Amino acid sequence: MAGLYLDRVFNKVEGLFQAFTAFCDLIPDEAAAQALVLSTRLALGPVICKSCNTPNQPKEARDRHFRCKKCKKLVWITAGTTFDGVVKLRPYLAANYLKERGIKLNPHQFHELLEIPYNTAVSIFKSTTLMLVRYFIDHSDTSQVAPSSVFIRAIFRRSRETPAGCHPREEERRARELFEEQRSAGKENRRSEGKLVNPQTVSGLDNAETELLDCISAEPIQFDSLIEQLGWPAGQLSGQLTILELKGFVLRLPGENYVRKDWQSQSLEESDCKKSVKPRVNAIIKHICRHHQGIARKYLQFYVADFLFDEHLDSWKEGTLLRMFLEGEKIRYKDVLDYVTELQVSVSVRVSQTMSCAPA
């Protein structure tokens, strides 16, 4: 039965049979996988003993640990890396090998292909993607960001962040509410300490604009009520409201009432997404819908990272992902579960940095 399923997978995923056969020739078993990982780690530089901080540079390693040349305690070669705590290395190398060749698999297909538990396959995929997210955030093009709300067309799946009984798109509203609550709490703390509010708290707003926006919510509030709360002259308040309207943060209603603009129903043209970024956003949404049909807002940045990896696939040298695993920090599954996409999504990475990450 498994053989029949694998035949269907090989037929469905273009290039999989040839790529997986080549991987099996290169890494036939766990011993070969361990040898490759350890030799690559030693080539990256000294391994620091956590007991005495002595740098060790063994020429080769047959096991995942050795004795420190100074304190003689065991030093684990993969300790502190993304492979920390990973028992079987070969499935990770297989996932990396296929990903670097543009082979698209889902966790169920991968679990059947490697004959590993499904939960292990999911963990490998999520850990790899979180590693990419961390790398891309560190090397992102800061001029190429977009509000998470503009990806709303791709949000169809629930997550642990979805409010009970609500559509998955309500995650975006909840994320905004939590951000506003945290920002307001931080503002009150700064006031009580006699410190000034950061004038760049939201999308480049100054002090006055931020203070005014804090007084406006999803519930309509009248012009006179705002004057009473803020103590501003009517002319100043009117001018600031006009600015916030033009920036897309506030909506004027009949009867001199004002509400926070409904970001959930924004189109790309109405949002605060830069015009130059809109084509990238549309390309990412198209990529998500083609390969995943729909996603949860919680992991939006994961799918953007997957798009960015594919976009620069020709720039990655073989073994780049392995080096990332060895130079990255340990990823616990709790790190994956606790991850929530920020309100601002990085949608581009500096290509030169991507290429320089490859092993020599």
Describe this entry's structure for a reader.
- This protein has 15 helices and 9 strands.
- The strands form 4 sheets. A 3-stranded antiparallel sheet has the order 6-8-7. Strands 1-2 form a two-stranded antiparallel sheet.
- 49% of the residues lie in helices and 7% in strands.
- Residues 190-203, 262-271 and 354-360 have low confidence and may be disordered.
- The protein is mainly α and 360 residues long.
- α4 (90-99) packs across α6 and α6 (118-138) crosses α12 (300-311).
- The protein has helices at residues 2-12, 16-26, 30-43, 90-99, 107-114, 118-138, 170-192, 207-214, 223-230, 234-247, 278-292, 300-311, 320-327, 333-338, 351-356, and strands at residues 47-48, 55-56, 65-67, 74-76, 145-147, 221-222, 250-253, 257-260, 344-346.
Number of DSSP helical runs? 15
Largest sheet: 3 strands, antiparallel
Sheet with the most strands: spatial strand order: 6-8-7
Distance between the termini: 43 Å
Morphology call = elongated
Question: What's the total count of β strands?
Answer: 9
Kindly estimate the percentage of residues that lie in beta strands according to DSSP.
Answer: 5-15%
Helix and strand element order: HHHEEEEHHHEHHEHHEEHHHHEH
What number is the mean pLDDT? 84
Radius of gyration: 25 Å
Q: What's the helical proportion of residues? A: 40-55%
Going by helix content, strand content and strand pairing, the class is mainly alpha
User: Unreliable stretches, pLDDT < 50, 5 or more residues?
Assistant: 190-203, 262-271, 354-360
